[in-house]
Design a protein that fits this description.
2% strand; binds zinc ion
Length: 162
């Protein structure tokens, strides 16, 4: 087993592909892919999909590049919208759509990106557990970026009003 250098979850030590800018250990990327397949293949898991993608992205910010800057910004805004504003996943998707047209700045990732990782979700045994754990995961990932909450709120408001 191997600790993912980014989210600090413990994953099988395997060789394999990883994402181009959401950098992770191969084992972590593999488990995330399996979580996504569960969500794509079963409607009762699907309702967590927005939060799953956002949580994974902000726990794997990678290093400063145009794509990482945009990725971290839009996924944090989505988490903000759903968790703090109580908006629907659909509303968050729309906000993200508008956000892709704007430029943001790099937010230097915090050292700890949350105590819950994809591993906790992967270990769940049914849709109910899955959905509950994704919610905890999303909250833990969002809280980890606490020092940027004000700026994320401002960016979101700016987009909403544009
Ligand atoms: Zn990871």
């Amino acid at each position: 087993m191997l600790e993912c250098f980014s989210c600090k979850g413990i994953y099988p030590d395997i060789d394999g592909p990883t994402h181009r800018y959401m950098e992770s250990s191969p084992g972590c990327w593999q488990m995330y892919s399996e979580i996504l397949s569960r969500e794509y293949s079963d409607q009762s898991y699907w309702k967590s999909h927005r939060l799953t993608v956002d949580s994974y992205a902000v726990q794997h910010p990678g290093t400063e590049s145009n794509q990482s800057i945009q990725s971290v910004a839009v996924h944090l805004m989505s988490l903000y919208f759903i968790i703090e504003e109580g908006k629907s996943h659909e509303a968050a998707r729309k906000l993200m759509g508008k956000a892709t047209k704007l430029k943001f700045q790099w937010l230097e990732p915090p050292k700890c990106l949350g105590e819950i990782s994809a591993k906790n979700v992967w270990l769940t045994e049914n849709a109910n557990q899955h959905n509950k754990t994704v919610e905890l995961w999303a909250n833990s990932a969002w809280n980890a970026w606490k020092k940027y909450h004000t700026i994320i709120r401002e960016w979101s408001k700016r987009i909403e009003c544009s």
